[in-house]
Amino acid sequence: LAQVLESADIRVTRIGVEELGGIDELSVHQAAILVDVAARQLGESHLKALDGYVRNLGRGLIVVGGTHSYGLGGYKDTPLEALLPVDAEAVDPQREVPVAQVLLIDTSESMGACHCDERGFERPTGGVLKTDIAKAGAIRALEALGPRDEVGVLAFSGTGRWLVPLQESPDREQAEEQIGRIRPFGETRIIPNLREAAEALRQSNKELKHIILFTDGFSIEVDNEEQGFPLAGASLLAEVEKLAEEGITVSIVGTGEGAIDALEEIAIAGRGRFYPGRDLNEIPEIFVKEARLASRTFINEGTFFPTVTSTAPAVRNLDSAPPLLGFVATTPKPTSDVQLQIGEFSDPLLASWRVGLGKVTAWTSDAGGKWAADWAGWDGFAGFWSNVVRDTFPLGGASGEVVDASISDETLTIRLQGEDAFEAGLEPVARVTMPDGTTQEVALERVSDTEFVGKVSARQGGTYAVGVAFERADGATATVTAIATRSFAAEYLPGPSDPELMASISAATGGRGEIEAAQAFDPDGLESGVSRMSFRWWFLLAAALLWPLDVALRRLRIGRRDRQAPRGSEPRPRPTPTTPSA
Asked: Could you say which of 492, 508, 534 is where a domain stops?
């Protein structure tokens, strides 16, 4: 994708997610593109920077799909999803199909610890056992499934035990009784029990087959290979990849510790979802949510021809295109502009909307790898992506108008200036992203025909990003932006002098109060700062204490042979002197 954009004269900077900077670093770019990025890869600071970058600086954001994105990437109910023109999950009830699902619950010894214990093996002095959390979650999941769904519960440590065999509508009372007998014991062997769960699912005729694995990730053996604590996940990764290719997906609910990074990679490889499980109270609800989501297909693979549904610039001249081989199912938000649709349920393929001063676009297939491979070789590929990206660039640039942001003392001053007089009745509003990621709107007041000014408190240390959008007389909208930085918080600024405090300090230390600068080194009127102290009694005391110790050390004799001889061994005979022969 980067090469295609560069061929269309769009300069591209490629970075890893961990290199994504703050809003001041982002502000030098017209748009940002996230390619198959999971929500968990973006920290809170990244998400706040992207939000301010779009809303307040008027920049563009394009989110490209893949197996780590949207519903599979954990976008649901995150700040990233709030920016998107689509909901990260397909919520249409029509696409729900009967599912066969196995709850695979780790009941090893480490699950007998409080879920907040990072070592995973200490018996708790208080709190709730991870196995008790699993019981509540499993029972709630059973309640969430429909009458045509199949469900089974397989508890495991070294070996597995079917608490509820895979079946439709299991008897609730009997199932709860069996689940209530879970006790933590033994070591953790995930792979053999994952295979047993998969074998049970192979016997089912349901269209969707899914495994929910609840574990802390502390495993001593993975596929007969010692992996240590916590599990490295290499063998398990390969196993779930094979199951995913077979059509059996795997989601993982963690307990907030253990091999959390490895478990997430395993869930991604299994085409499922990953829940870290850091909040004790949320885990039973996670079971319910995951049980329901399993009845929907997120990844759709096949041969799909997109349909143009808009006259937006990105697709205006799109007369024909090759088929796509897959996409991630999402749901368009009510006010979004869906430009391309795809699949049986007319899912959004390309959708966009305005967020604050900026624009966000969602593309739910990939960027030319697995699903859009035919598009990568299409002669219209470069033109299409060039139009998509340019469509998110900031609104029409200013014609002689500039905005200036400056900080003095504790105040940020914003000035909008123009070469020509602004139209009468213009009421521009500045959107300011504060260093903590929050947004403030500042009304700008006209101070002359060519200038508007606004002020806001700026006590926080960090970067202030300012964006101002206004409408010209011809109806065109212009956006201008500026950045101001405070290197330290206002609390570190020098405050006003306090004569009373200084006088009290001077009196307490024997000083002379307020004096002229020339008297600073004049000793007149000051008491001597030198005092004498005798140490003779301290030395006599030390000698009295050390003298008995000195006598004891001189009188004690510990034989070297006695110290070196092994306990219980016979003493070695003394050597007999020999007389050399004459």
From this structure: 492
